[in-house]
Amino acid sequence: MNKHVLTGRPTADPEVSYFGKDGEQKMMAKFTLASNHLHDKDADFFRCVAFGKKADFVEKYVKKGIHLLITGPERNNNYKDKEGKTVYGMNLVIETIEMLDKKKTEQEADQNKEEFMEMTEEEMANLPFK
Predict the structure, then answer these.
(1) Which of 3, 44, 50, 72 could connect to 55 by a Cys-Cys bridge, CB 3.0–4.6 Å?
(2) What SS3 class is residue 73?
(3) Could you give the CA distance from residue 55 to residue 41 in angstroms, rounded to a whole number?
(4) Separation CA 75–CA 57 (nearest Å)
(5) Backbone torsions φ then ψ of 73, nearest 5 degrees
């Protein structure tokens, strides 16, 4: 079985491209995910790729630094360069992607709640304006 479950943060905004024949273009989104080790400050870096509707989601919502949970298989991305040498690589093909950060609107609402000052009715009555 070839299935990975990773949490981490993109090191940059995704790169979006299209491939296929003119009549049947498909969207592809790529980014590198930094996944921290549990017991130290080191991280591993995984090249992630999404296709079709998942690529559209990645383009719209995934930004550098947002906390993600990703599942999917790892696939070879080997190719021959211009000199004929084989270049080896691996990509995690995104099957599922979930955002682990709270929505910004919720974060802003929480921040506003902390900054809000509670006043008694007597204090409200003594304000210089009404």
Answers:
(1) 50
(2) coil
(3) 30
(4) 21
(5) -80, 155
